[in-house]
Amino acid sequence: MERHISQMIMTLVAIATALFCGLSHANDVLTELKNYASTHSAEQSIAHLNQFDLDNSGFSAEDKAKFYFQYGQLFEQTRQLDLSIASYDKGISYVESLPVTDILIDSHLERSFANYLKTNDPAVYCIDRVKALDYARQHNNMELLTKTLTQNAFCYEDASNFHIGIALLDEALAIVDKSDHLNANRKAMIYNATGSLYRNIGMHQQGYDNFEKAYQTWQTINDKQDMFNMLHNMFSQSIKLSNWIQAQANIDQQFQLAHDAPEFKDLYFFANLNAGRLGLRTYDFQQAIFHLNKAIELKHTTQEHYFVSSSYLFLALAYMRNGQAIQAAEMAHVFKQDGSFRADKSEMILKADAIIAFGNKDYLTATNLLFKLIDEEREKNQSMLNNEVINSALKHQNNVTEFEKQLLVNKLAINELKLAAIRDKEHINDLTLTIIALLASTLGILLIFFLNTYKKRSQTDFLTKIANRGYTYIKGEQLVKRCIKTNKPASVIIFDIDNFKEINDKYGHHIGDLAIKSLANKAKSSIKKQDLVGRIGGEEFLIVLPNTCEQEAVAISERLRNSIAEKTFIFGDIKINFTISLGVSEIEPSSSALQDLVMQADKALYQAKFFGKNKVYLARQCAYLYEEQARYSVKSSPVFL
Predict the structure, then answer these.
(1) Confidence category of residue 422, pLDDT binned at 50, 70, 90
(2) N or C: the chain end with fewer CB closer than 10 Å?
(3) Local structure of 58: helix, strand or coil
């Protein structure tokens, strides 16, 4: 203890001496402070820094900005985000009227990150990133420009502006390609940004792959906090892909990392939040409730308010699905109290409003809110599908937007080769023209192979090996539009497993997965080669039947329904029986796209469920039944789904 006090006194004396020596020693003081911070906690370093009267130190404006930058970093580490932002504000105020310097750009980028932690809202945190990029383009620091370009790429969340983010990453990679070295952080951030862009347009497998590369890169330098952030992103992608085994493995790694890095106090909060989300998606509602309550108990450990508020909504959903409507409404009310929650997350707000309405026994409002939620989700998916960015990643078409579709996959693959080429540039320069020609041919063949592999993986559902949701809607839209254009019939069938939750609850999710796979195989064998069947949800499937009238579609549906109802499925030593319900719709004069048919068939499926299950219902016959059901739902208390 005495030795520690003695060392602290010596450090203070050294810093005080440097301060008295004036302006020329500012760098010495900064170095001393950084050395102190590297061996002490953030709280101790803040207390240490508080002993200096920086405003009256006689240091230059740039050096004062560097001191306040150090303050901002320390407050950020302790998640005192308001103080962190105020520190960056003060530092920026010293240098924003001067010629552009590194510290001005870095301060804007770090203030952006603090605002990200505080709001998780691009409309807030991207303001600083745009300013930083404007400054970086005026400044002669290529490493800092690369960093700024990469961070700006995160700001383009929508399919409509996806190409802008890709263009920024391409520019960053072009700079990196000319550089003699690339540090691990920069490489990992490029992978992270690429994964984020893929995630935002619904290409979740590609998103997962890039987040995993970022995780592995940060692992090489043992950056535990960024490793955890990537595990969080990888988990979210696993959820989107319905890959429960992979999601559970991510959760286990998160808890292990939280144990190994106790200095990052909010890791257990996020590990429990994600474990709760997994329980919710796999219908293990008791497990979801346990972990989400645990996360809320730990909310004081994090300043990321968006995720704290989200945890209340997830808990409300878990309570609701577990039949605890009162507790669900209470949690939904707590979620709604966050007036600063992101307005663009309307689907989350709708869920909370529906739960609250149900808790107030306003069943009609709750039902209408759920229908609105379904409609918004479909519009969102349709908007994403209509934006041809996804097609650019799957096909090589001649149509281009500002970012040429045909280059999307090619550029990302070539960028990977460029990153590897940086390490081998000197060797490559020594190759003969013959070897270069051979390599070019080989790379061309490999590129075609990888593109075909990526295309197939991005179109296939991992569990059933039939078409996934994205490809089903893309290909199905093409088939339906072709029939409309040629004035030929087309029909769709939507179906799912009746009482699927009971199968999972009684036999476990593994048996549920086997039931889904068996149903997919049956459906695939029930249709013609030119027809399309895809998995569009957990146990929900869509069949698109070009050149097929309603009568033929009904016959196909009945054959499929009977074949399932009459069969006993044997999975190891377990025998189960189950049924399916189906909704059928055919092109009508008012139909203009696949979405119209899907909406009609979905309503028919709802009626099949409502009137006893194990049935086939036609969309055109459901109008009267639907009106009857609506009147019934107002008079009674429907089951909340």
Answers:
(1) very low
(2) N
(3) coil
Which of 24-38, 381-395, 499-513 bottoms out in mean pLDDT, i.e. has the lowest?
A: 381-395
Could you give the 3-state DSSP secondary structure of residue 488? coil
Give per-residue pLDDT as tens, 72-125: 888 888 878 889 899 899 999 999 999 999 999 999 999 998 888 888 788 888
How far is residue 456's CA from residue 471's CA, in Å, rounded to a whole number?
Answer: 10
Q: What is the DSSP string of 311-362?
A: HHHHHHHHHHHTT-HHHHHHHHHHHHT-TTS-TT-HHHHHHHHHHHHHHTT-
In sequence order, what are the residues at sequence separation of 6 or more whose Cβ sits closer than 8 angstroms to the Cβ of residue 390? Answer: 159, 201, 202, 203, 384, 470, 474
Between β-strands 580-586 and 490-497, what pairing exists: parallel, antiparallel or unpaired?
A: antiparallel
Residue owning tokens 């008791």:
286
- 434, burial (CB in 10 Å: exposed 0-12, middle 13-18, buried 19+): exposed
For residue 440, give the amino acid letter.
A
- Whose tokens are 């041919």? That residue is 441
Alpha helices (runs of H) in 21-154, residue ranges in sequence order: 26-39, 42-49, 61-77, 81-95, 102-119, 122-137, 142-153
- Bigger pLDDT: 236 vs 449: 236
Gap between the Cα atoms of 364 and 383, Å rounded: 28
Buried b (16+ CB within 10 A) or exposed e, 602-638: bbbbbbbbbeeebbbbbbeebeebbeebeeebeeeee
Q: Checking DSSP bridges between strand 616-618 and strand 580-586, what pairing results, if any?
A: parallel
Q: Which one-letter amino acid corresponds to residue 490?
A: A
Integer Cα distance of 366 and 641 in angstroms: 10
Kind and range of the H or E run holding 279: helix 267-281
**10: pLDDT confidence band, cut at 50, 70 and 90?**
very low
CB 619, CB 604: distance < 8 Å: yes
Tokens, residue 506? 């009684």
Q: Are 53 and 65 in contact (CB under 8 A)?
A: no
Percentage of the residues of the chain whose pLDDT score is greater than 90? 38
pTM, two decimal places: 0.50
CA distance 370 to 381: 17
Q: What is the Cα–Cα distance from 91 to 103, expressed in whole angstroms? A: 9
Helix (H) or strand (E) holding 637: none
Cα–Cα distances in Å, from 570 out to 193, 301, 437, 577?
45, 48, 56, 9
Q: Are 113 and 122 in contact (CB under 8 A)?
A: no
Quickly tell me which residue has 């379904």 as its tokens.
374
The secondary structure of 134-145 as a DSSP string is: HHHHTSS-HHHH
**Distance from C-alpha of 459 to C-alpha of 478, rounded to nearest angstrom:** 15
Identify the DSSP state of 533. E
Position 597 pLDDT exceeds 70: yes
First-to-last C-alpha distance (Å) of the chain: 62
Mean pLDDT, the chain, integer: 79
Classify each residue of 463-477 as buried b or exposed e, where b means 16 or more C-beta atoms within 10 Å of its C-beta: bbebbbbbbbbbbbb
Report residue 421 as tokens.
């080429």
